[in-house]
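Human: If only I could read backbone structure tokens as easily as an amino acid sequence. Take your time, and here it is.
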Amino acid sequence: MAMRIIRFFLGQCILFFNWLTFPKPPQQSAAAQAQIVEQLKGLTLYHYRACPFCVKVRRALARLGASVAMVDAKRDTAAAEQLLAGGGRLKVPCLRIEQQGEVRWLYESDDIIAFIEAKLS
């Protein structure tokens, strides 16, 4: 019970400091934003709201002005089952990459950020 309270408190601290310091997306034209959306089509981020590594990925997305579909695997049991069935692990953050009919699952926040940065360059 004590660990649950500590995890809850830490999660709330993470969310509060993320809210205070959340990066502003870059100003882009509508055409540039449409191009980013097209480049990131087929990506879905499985995350937990208060996970520090998930926060890291969401902040990187904001800094890049990128948006991908997001699924909270903690609150959505169907999403958690998809993550476990497809990726093989119930671990977040995880990026589901669907390209040309193939599906890959990418774990690790640094790898996810590097993949998205490479897609946008």
Observations:
- The two ends are 47 Å apart (CA to CA).
- The first strand starts at residue 43 and ends at 47.
